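User: quick one, fold this
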Amino acid sequence: MSDAAAAVAPSSLAQSAAPSRLQAAGAERKARARAAMLEGPIVSTLVRMALPTIGVMIAQTAVGIAETYYVGFLGTDALAGVALVFPIFMLMATTSNGGLGSGVASAVARAIGAGRQQDADALVFHSIVVAIVCGALFTGGILWAGPALYGALGGRDASLVAALDYSDILFSGAIAVWIVNLLAAALRGSGNVKVPALVTLVGAIVMIPISPALIFGFGPIPRLGIAGAGVAFNLYYVGALFVMLRYMRSGRSGLTLTVTPLQGRLFADILKVGLPTAFNAVQTNLCVILVTGAVGLFGTAALAGYGTASRLDYVLIPILFGLSSAVLTMVGINVGAGQGARARHIAWISMLVGAGLTGAIGIAAALLPTLWVGLFTHDPEVMAAGAPYLRIVGPFYAFYGVGFVMSFAAQGAGKTLWPTIAVSFRLAVAAGGSWIAVAAFGGTMTTLTWIVAASFVAYALLSAGVMLQRAAWAPKAP
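Assistant:
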């Protein structure tokens, strides 16, 4: 060997050994997480997996609440514009996180539970392909249909202009949102909840000062108004995209991102859970959109009041999503490993935890509704429209928790029938009932609110139907 070769060889060996050590550490971490889910105590394992996601999702939601607070200073029309866009944005968020994201997490969890590591790794690249397609569809669709959509929901004049200013910027970054959310879902499916949580937390911390600076202007930063909220959001997701891609390529995650040949069976493994769940997410947000449209019949103040009050419904989502993502992973890995009875027990315990958390929040909101609505506005008309919603719907939040958790447990088991039935029935009750009551029979906002509360009860009862379906908890073939 030449002197030059001898000098280079140790360095080359050290460089090649580094990825191996990182991959070994990732594999060891994944093995420990798998063992805890298959053999460890259920409650403590559930809490340990759920808390990081719950914590940072709450932080991310707090950023959204803060943005609504900032936008409130721009006036009632801007607040109404955000209320129009918000359910459409949540459609994208829930479709990517809890819809197709659940399909990704479920597929990865079942592959790892069955010991199919090569498939688990390949599912990461397949997820990115799905994300690019879906993100492009959202961007193109909203830019094309936004004016007609927000107009149909009750947007008029200044409120419609505000909605479009916000929406056009927000949805231009849809591809980055989809990739980040599906990569995070893959990590959660493998039992790695800390890294997705950390990325979200850092982004939330960064957005808190950036968002008002872009909305109102600061130093050399121009005042962008309501569009500034969308710019801040996109800046966060583009940064998160580069961080997640680099991490997944490093081998430290226990899942490795590499370009692999596309396989129909892996797409099918994602989509057999992801498509029905995404359909459920579409129905859930369609329910909100249609109810928002019914509220729009009462005028701009009612729309702003309902939008601010019902945003608390969405505050429940990060709490339930953090809990339910852990449930999905634990159920999926146990079902994949042939431990159906333990998977079913996990689902029961998780359902009680979810009902307790959301029930406590709902009761507090019902007792102090003006405390929440008053965060965003002091307009008497808006307050009068928003507070009664929380007084009536708040006590029924526990039912929403039951339905949400049981839907994710079913997804982990690879079963989506009962969740789909539950969401469809909720759509029929809440949206259909609201429009019939208001448009055909002259119902009031109080009538509409009681219909929404009844839809939560129907959602819970039907979602729990999967617990009666014993075949859902049987071992799955590799």
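User: anything notable?
Assistant: Residues 1-18 have pLDDT under 50 and may be disordered.
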